[in-house]
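Contributing new records

If you add data, match the layout below exactly. Sequence lines come first and carry their own label; structure lines follow with theirs. Keep one chain per record. Anything else will be rejected by the validation script.
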Amino acid sequence: MNETKYSFQKLTPINCADISVYEQAINFVFENSDIRNVAISGAYSAGKSSVLETYKSKNGEYHFVHLSLAHFHTAELEKEHEDKVKESILEGKILNQLLHQITSEKIPQSNFRVKKGIDTSYLVKLTTVICIFIFSLLFLIFSSNIILFVTSLQENWLKDILAFIFNSYSIIISALIFLISSVIIVYSLIKAQKNKNIFRKISLQGNEIEIFEEQDDSYFDKYLNEVLYLFENIEADVIVFEDMDRFNSSRIFERLREVNTLVNINKKINMGDGFKPLRFFYLIRDDIFTSKDRTKFFDYIIPIIPIVDSSNSYDQFIKLLNQSEVIGMFENSFLQSLTLYIDDMRILKNIYNEFIVYIHRLNNTELNWNKMMAIIVYKNLFPRDFSDLQLDKGFVFEIFEQKKSLIADSLKVISDKREELVSRLDRIKKESLVSIEELHDAFSAKEKRLPRNYYSQNLTSEGLEMKRENDIELEKREQALNDIIDGNLTLIEREITEIEYKENRIYAKAIKELITKENVDKIFSVKRNNEVGDINEFKEIKCNDYFALLKFLIRNGYIDETFKDYMTYFYDDSLSASDKTFLRRITDRRGAAYTYILKEPKRILESPIIRNIEFELEEILNFD
């Protein structure tokens, strides 16, 4: 059986990028020995690493060592604590990665060690030398007693063997062996002391004396010396520092520039005419320094033009989708709108990879590919909220929890309109007069009977209140007479019927239909009060650069009430896959043919979807 082969994209840097101009710019660095601190700058995912990897593949004569100093923020990380640990985290990462890229034999004097398997052969040799040392020493001490003991034995084969081994010559041989083993042991101890400083103090007549002490070393000097020692002994032409800008710390750059200067000074002294400088390449974003600091700190800056931005991300995404021949399953307008918000090539690649997995694992009930892509985009850009949504919590969950209140608000507006029309219709039916003139005559006569002051004939306060009520009633009755004259009775009855129909249809509306220009800001400013009274304002969502994209996906119905169908497997314990497909076609407003075969119509009728729409939609019609 032929297995379907899917096309995926790796997120790692490529080594076949177009590096025209970039290659000459990097060559310029190696042609000038005084250029030692180089910035390769660009936005995140601009392609900095790919440019360097491609250059390395084309220029094998240079040895690059990479130190990846990735550091990612979490919502719980407090700013104050973060500022305290930035530099220590960076220093620790640098030391750790340097140690793991240098063999221990090349840095015997380092106080930092990498744990690794013990060399058994070395232990065997050392143990053997020590045992030989001990046995030879013991023989030299007790040689006369041993020889005397052997001569006192009775004559037999055992005495002959022992007499051959223990004689005057054996003392000379033991002395030589003792001397050789002593030299080996003393050499090993001196080497260990020099490299590891095992013995720090000796006691002489009650006084402690520091041995092998470097009295001028402070704690920081010892740390810096270790760093210099490691950099001096790593076999590299270039040390590449990646992602250091994520720490937002400029002090580490100053420290590394100092290290680079000191390392190259030491190398020049030791190597003389054969000196080759050690260069530091920093892969950083453009805004890490101010303009003056950038040119003052770096000896050379190579800008990288982003491979993807919002203007060309659509073309790049289309190329990815074409590789798996799925482009025809999407609305072109959806993809174009989607890529207006995404300008990161790695994110695009991962969205593509996850989409291929999800759609081919979950697509057993005719899933809408646009909605699936929207869910994958949401998962990549808001992974924590996606996880919360699976547990019925989080920002998006709270958005959909507002649906009941949105329906109630919409019903109130329509109900007020319907009540107004019903009152208007009731006035028309009750109106007994036939003309506006007759109505005005009746109200003029009514006004003459209002209470007045005896002397001034002005209306009393009671009369004024009655006049206001009469004016309101006159206005309403004028409207009723005009409706009668214009023949609006049937029109009003039709409007009331339409409003009642709309009231019934509101319950079946998706949330995208309930979001309007008037309420959109209120909806997306949702907050959550938990059981203990804490308020979650979802700032990590609202302050995210992609928040506008999330609003677009929800407002346009790409993420809707059916989101759970796109997040997990479908099991047909309650409904069959074909019946689930029929219900989905109803919610997506793309009903199945009337002849579509339903396996269990009774279970479909029991579905909340059917009850909500109250059989008002044409998509529900089916012969079964």
